[in-house]
Amino acid sequence: MPFNLLNERFLPILRANGAKERIAPWEITDGYADDPIVALDAARPDFNGGALIQFLIGLLQTAFAPKDSLEWEDRMFGQPPSPEELKAAFARYQNAFNLDGDGPRFMQDFDPLTAQKPIPITALLIDTAGSETHFIKNLPQQGFSPALAAMALYSLQTNAPAGGVGHRTSLRGGGPLTTLVVCAPDDPMQPATLWQTLWLNVLEASHFKSSNNRPEDIFPWLALTRTSEKNSKTEFTTRVDVNPLQMFWGMPRRTRLDFEDVGGGECGLSGEQSDILVRQYRTKNYGMNYSGIWGHALSPHNRSAEDSLPVHAKGQINYRHWLGLVQINQDKKIQRVPAATVQRFWKQRLHREGFRFRLWVFGYDMDNMKPRCWYEATLPLFQVEETQRESFEATIKHLIDAAGLFLGNLRSCLKDAWFSDGDPRRSGADTGFLDAAFWSDTETDFYGLLEQLRPDPGNNDLRKKLSLAWHGILNGYTLKTFDRYANTSQITDQNPRRIAAARRNLMRFNYKKDIKNLLDMPATPKNKA
């Protein structure tokens, strides 16, 4: 019998009582009343976010989407579906989820690709990016259990970076940023559940209405691949060519797991014993080349007059990313908009008494083919009266924009302290360590101010008071940081006069007009002649 991802208990999960188990996808609401499932528990953190959580959201969106907002709310804040209901709903698509066997294989090319030379299964992992095109040599000959091979395969197809000529990036490009609304009860004795996390990020069925409703329009591996050779009729695949639900099942890479040369032993990822270890796979270039505006439901997008592109992870995630992830941000010609699920959260006012809501943000920071890091974080979602939301969001934007100006002043003045005019080292000086520390060190104060502002964001006196406090926090932080690094021993030609002048400029720059305008501070009176 084939290894079927809808039937096999391959999902590693954690229950409220701390027990670890493996379940089938239809069992996600098992024991909901007494001992619910609270989280995924994969061998790697990128498998939890980059693969399994999106696999389950996509499965629910495809096979169990609510017909309207009333049904959605009833399942979210009322009674979730039983395992039996989910099993029946998923069964309609069972033939699309065989990982092996003679027929179509989950997220694998319809062609067996037997002419291609097999490569080690470890090349499926994002952190060995480029290995399938032989940029990385001598990969370890480890084997993955079928469950872990499926996770690695889904993660690659969903996050695929550039991989050489014809090796396509994912539907959202290499290393897309994913944002999920999550919640937890105020009562610490009542845990958040995996079901709530999943359902909070499932949209009504009408969001994916399409005339392309064949199974292969949703699951591309059920038919011959729409290959993307140059100038071919299928060079590009747009949202109108297939069903928009394919955004959860995109297949940019032509891959085929090798279930012929297998053996038993210890899985190279989980360390668990498995009767089957997948040791290698085959791949071929010119898989599906996704193009045009897809509007992936789980990603924020940068919109211009011509395009709408998914946001990618770039560095550590913190409150500087609030604009565009939590609320819309207009910057010159680009508008950054939150994911569709986040927008639905605000539009339908889904805050509920007794629950705390946050935004779970994660993704690979990619440098073309090379993954630099897997980042994830959570940002709070504050409950504000709808009539007050515009004032609240405007103040948040001003606070964050002002913070960016303070950081720019700090970087510039430290370079003034380190280098004389014309010193060629100035342009190449690395100040990245300042950025990471700045956003991290000021984050607690930022959220503290928002919590104070939240009850009455339209109160001008309160807003001015908090803005002034924010100025004091940032001014103090930048001066303290300047004093810490200005006299660095790494700069051989330290000049006390130059350092003192740079510090005076920092104090002056921190009170410049653009900062004072953002924080609604009174203008400095001009001296009379």
Notes on the protein architecture:
With about 525 residues, this protein is of the alpha+beta class. It has 2 domains: about 270 residues, no CATH class; about 140 residues, no CATH class. The chain is built from 15 helices and 15 strands. The strands form 5 sheets. A 4-stranded antiparallel sheet has the order 11-10-13-12. A 3-stranded antiparallel sheet has the order 2-1-3. It has a 3-stranded antiparallel sheet with strand order 4-9-6, with no helix packed on it. A hairpin with a 4-residue loop joins strand 10 and strand 11. It is globular and about 75 Å long. The relative contact order is 0.11. About 0% of the residues have low confidence.
What's the short version?
The protein is of the alpha+beta class. Helix content is 33%, strand content 15%.
Pairing-aware structural class of the strands and helices? alpha+beta
Q: Helical content, roughly?
A: 25-40%
Overall domain count = 2
The fraction of residues assigned to DSSP E strands is 15-25%
Q: Distance N terminus to C terminus?
A: 92 Å
Topology:
Blueprint lengths: L10 E5 L4 E4 L13 E4 L4 H19 L5 H9 L5 H9 L27 E2 L25 H14 L18 E8 L8 H6 L15 H4 L35 E4 L4 E5 L6 E6 L1 E5 L16 E3 L4 E3 L11 H4 L3 E3 L2 E4 L2 H8 L7 E13 L2 E12 L7 H30 L6 H4 L3 H10 L1 H11 L6 H26 L10 H14 L3 H6 L11
Antiparallel strand pairs: 1-2, 1-3, 4-9, 5-14, 6-9, 7-8, 10-11, 10-13, 12-13, 14-15
Helix pairs in contact: 1-4, 9-13, 9-14, 12-13
